[in-house]
Amino acid sequence: MTKPRPYVLSIAATDPSAGAGVLADIKTLEANKVYGLGVVSGITYQNDNTFTGVDWVPVENITRQAEIVLTKFPVKVTKIGLIQSLPVLETIIDFLLGLKPDLKIIWDPILKASAGFTFHDRLEQEALLPILKKLFLLTPNVTEACSLGEMDSPEESALQLSQYCHVLLKGGHRVKKLGRDTLYLQSGEKYSYRPKEQNISAKHGSGCVLSAALAANLAQNYKLPRACLRAKQYTTKFLTSNANLLGYHQT
């Protein structure tokens, strides 16, 4: 009999293709040797290359889902993905921290679907900054970092945002230094993670996979820089698993 696994909660939208969102998170968490719990924040209508819309789950239903698992299971880390708005996000975060003040919260700020559907055009800084201060980690790609930090340079934006929480700048959308991720700690330290595989294939939901793998490693008590490295290694295996947009999860 195997020893008990840590618990991680994913709060994200459904994806019928199971390549992204809460379904991808659960698969990633399982492959990374933690038990994944799932709360649905929205119902999307998409596959691996087409996105036609989303129906949002009311925030009171999101918190009700979260409460029933958080009051039973010893969750160490929560990863939040696609959310309707910043006010909804803050309500969820406040609810989570009210139940578990020491909970590590990761926000993967999905502003636009890979198929082109835009969820959030502009995020108000006055609403954003109080939220960042409650997070353990923010995981934007380069485009999202520029939007959140309101700067043209993703690196400068990530550095600015790291005043409020740790930031992992994902490099999958870079024009130069493709695939290089950079961790900006609140202390000012910086770590870079270069891709070791060149024969990779773009995957639907790769950002979800990276942040979920990171959550899994944090729940196993790896320090953040090491957790980022292990998550990068897992995501690379996912990206090289096949030549299709829907990758395979491997232990």
Global mean pLDDT: 92
**How many strands?**
9
Rg measurement, Å: 17 Å
Number of domains: 1
Oligomer: single chain
Biggest sheet character: 9 strands, mixed
Q: Categorize the overall geometry.
A: globular
The CATH architecture is 3-Layer(aba) Sandwich
Proportion in helices: 25-40%
CATH superfamily: Ribokinase
* Weakly predicted, low-confidence segments: none
Report the top-level CATH class: Alpha Beta
Order of helices and strands: EHEEHEHEHEHHEEEHH
Strand content: 15-25%
Put simply, the count of helices is: 8
Fold-level CATH name: UDP-N-acetylmuramoyl-L-alanine:D-glutamate ligase
Give an overview in words.
The chain is an alpha/beta fold. It is built from eight helices and nine strands. It has a single domain, classed as Ribokinase (UDP-N-acetylmuramoyl-L-alanine:D-glutamate ligase, 3-Layer(aba) Sandwich), CATH 3.40.1190. Helices cover 36% and strands 20% of the residues. A nine-stranded mixed β-sheet has the order 3-2-1-4-5-6-7-8-9, with helices on both faces. Strand 5 (104-107), helix 4 and strand 6 form a beta-alpha-beta unit. Helix 1 (21-31) crosses helix 7 and helix 5 crosses helix 6 (154-161). The protein is globular, with a radius of gyration of 17 Å. The protein starts with 6 loop residues before the first strand and ends in a 12-residue tail after the last helix. Pfam families: Phos_pyr_kin (PF08543). One of its GO terms (cellular component) is cytosol.
Could you list some keywords that capture this structure?
251 residues; alpha/beta; UDP-N-acetylmuramoyl-L-alanine:D-glutamate ligase; 9-stranded mixed β-sheet; 9 strands; kinase
